[in-house]
Write a sequence for this structure.
């Protein structure tokens, strides 16, 4: 996610903090200053917030590890002021797998709470506060963190799709109906709950609840449309939608040479080629940035981030939709039998559907998807 700073990696999963997280820390400082809190208690409050978000990161790692068990890779985890998000390659349309992955996050919080209870006083009732513990002592810190983890587990089980509870609801519905219908029902329930969050946040003057509500509204709508697109492209092979007309640049070309091409070609992405062989996809902004930094003699291949992802022309579009969805306009090379056939992008697949399904029953759905992408 743009604007995030990497803090560490766990089993190849990048964990990063979005810059907006600083706003949450600033809000905590402001609240403490308004209440006349001394420096020691302010530091204690900040440490508690960081401990909570460490638990949020473990929650997301729970999802990532469960996904990995089913052979689904998690790329990264980003911590935001409203919580965390794990970028999983795809959520399976197998209800048992989705149920397991969705339950893994809240289960991690329950495990953390249980371990904190064992660490503090396993002889005392789980819900009991430590006796004679100062409000800002270690005892209350551990107790509060335990209760927060229980709260995180319960909150995430609210059936507001695409939160964990909403995904669990969709998985349960998926045992009885197709996933598009299950997603529509789960998303409708989630949107209703989102409006409750927004209204409640305004009434009690809590800025976090409206933010969560807006996130749910946007994410539920996006995922519902995305799943509909997946159902529409099911069975369409990539070699059916491949583009032969695309913008390209040679990998050994210098930045100064590419600048003259960018003047007359306004494509956002270019295929980077070594002769007739694709070696990557480059965003024009990378070239513009190199120009601004006066790296005129630098070769274009040095600007490419990551290895080229070659897509199999015999594969169906629904199997690579998650990969294409990372950027609507990015070009991906398609090969078949070791031969370069052309390129695809998510936008092009939507345009293909619009051109080939005009007049059909699904045309309206495709048009709404096109509007969402643009």
């Amino acid at each position: 996610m743009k604007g995030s700073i990497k803090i560490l990696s766990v089993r190849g999963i990048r964990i990063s903090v979005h810059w907006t997280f600083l706003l949450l820390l600033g809000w905590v400082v402001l609240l403490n200053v308004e209440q006349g809190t001394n420096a020691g208690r302010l530091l204690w409050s900040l440490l508690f917030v960081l401990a909570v978000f460490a638990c949020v990161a473990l929650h997301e790692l729970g999802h990532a590890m469960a996904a990995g068990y089913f052979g689904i890779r998690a790329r990264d985890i980003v911590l935001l002021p409203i919580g965390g998000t794990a970028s999983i390659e795809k959520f399976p349309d197998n209800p048992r797998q989705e149920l397991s992955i969705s339950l893994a996050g809240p289960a991690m919080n329950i495990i953390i709470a249980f371990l904190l209870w064992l660490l503090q006083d396993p002889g005392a009732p789980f819900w009991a506060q430590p006796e004679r513990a100062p409000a800002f002592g270690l005892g209350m810190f551990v107790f509060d963190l335990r209760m927060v983890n229980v709260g995180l587990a319960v909150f995430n089980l609210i059936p507001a799709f695409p939160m964990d509870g909403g995904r669990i609801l969709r998985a349960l519905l998926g045992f009885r109906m197709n996933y598009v219908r299950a997603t529509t029902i789960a998303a409708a329930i989630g949107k209703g709950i989102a409006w409750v969050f927004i209204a409640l946040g305004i009434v009690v003057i809590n800025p976090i609840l409206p933010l969560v509500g807006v996130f749910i509204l946007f994410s539920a709508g996006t995922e519902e449309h995305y799943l509909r697109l997946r159902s529409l492209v099911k069975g369409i092979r990539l070699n059916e939608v491949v583009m032969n007309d695309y913008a390209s640049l040679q990998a050994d070309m210098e930045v100064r040479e590419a600048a003259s091409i960018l003047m007359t070609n306004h494509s956002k992405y270019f295929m980077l080629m070594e002769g007739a062989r694709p070696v990557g996809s480059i965003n024009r902004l990378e070239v513009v940035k190199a120009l601004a930094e006066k790296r005129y003699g630098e070769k274009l291949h040095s600007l490419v981030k990551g290895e080229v992802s070659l897509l199999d022309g015999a594969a169906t579009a629904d199997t690579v939709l998650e990969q294409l969805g990372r950027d609507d306009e990015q070009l991906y090379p398609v090969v078949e039998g070791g031969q370069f056939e052309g390129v695809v992008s998510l936008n092009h697949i939507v345009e293909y559907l619009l051109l080939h399904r005009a007049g059909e029953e699904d045309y309206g759905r495709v048009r709404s998807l096109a509007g969402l992408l643009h």
